[in-house]
Amino acid sequence: MTRKISVGENFLFGGCGLAAAISALEGTSGRRCVWATGQYLSYANPGEVVDIDITIAVEGHAITQARAVCHVADREILTVNAALGDRDFEASGQWETMPADLPPPMSLPPRPTPPENEGTITSQLDQRLVKGVEWDQLATDQSSAVQSDGQTLMWARIPEVIADVDAVTLAILGDYVPMGVGQSLGRRGGGNSLDNTLRVCRMVPTDWVLMDIRIHAVERGFGHGLVHMFAEDGTLLATASQSVIARLRTE
To answer: If you average pLDDT over every residue of the chain, what do you get?
Structure first.
């Protein structure tokens, strides 16, 4: 574990944990990820070693069902169940569409990294906000908060870490539902992931990924939402859905 794959509070970024598990599952099975869901159980800190144990539960002609258990010594951090494989199937289609008339990523200013996030996963991402509010413009108390319509749009890429977009890349980017919680509430905040489910559609070459984040509700201290991830040409790469422990910052 290093700080480069941590959040500002100095523990493993959930998307990086899911990405590592998917990489291990794909490498062990020799098949590409179709679907993976992770349940976050504890935290891993920089300097600790995270081991990933792979179990192949069922291996069929086209599909492998497997699980990964990520742990630090005997402390379980993350459990991932997944299906992997490819099938010959003559029909295909995409019905979810990318929002229209979006500005290109390079026409937008890079999102600044808050000081507490220097050196973390946030500083490894190049983020360009299309629809949303910058961190320093979000409210620190409820009286001045302005709730949004629940949608946040952002271009993102990981230029120094991963060149080609694949399931591992998308597992990292798909963990930005917590960001949408703060954006939707109009408050400086987000949350800690309880789970993350990645569903992989079609891979095409793309430099940038559009993250269309939709928050469904925040109730009882938990937020629920999903993100659709599109290539620059409008291809739906994957979807990710999450429930998070909602948290607010008052400073």
So the answer is: 95
User: 243 with 249: CB under 8 angstroms?
Assistant: no
pTM of whole model > 0.90? yes
What SS3 class is residue 198? strand
For Cα atoms 81, 82, 84, give the angle at the middle one, nearest 5 degrees. Answer: 160
Distance of alpha carbon 211 from its chain centroid, rounded? 9
Continuous H helices in the chain: 14-29, 121-124, 167-173, 177-185
What is the maximum span of the chain, computed from C-alpha positions, in angstroms? 58
Give Cα 153 distance to the centre of its chain.
14
Report yes or no: 238 and 199 within 8 Å, Cβ to Cβ: yes
Domain boundaries, the chain: 3-86+104-248
Query: What is the C-alpha to C-alpha distance for residues 62 and 83, in angstroms, rounded to an integer?
Result: 10
Both tokens assigned to 189: 């905040």
- If you average pLDDT over residues 191-211, what whole number do you get? 96
Structure tokens at 156: 């993102």
Class of 3-86+104-248 in CATH: mainly beta
90: Cβ–Cβ under 8 A, 6 or more apart, which residues? Answer: none
The strand ranges marked E within 132-251 are 151-157, 189-193, 195-200, 209-219, 222-231, 236-248
d(CA 234, CA 202): 11
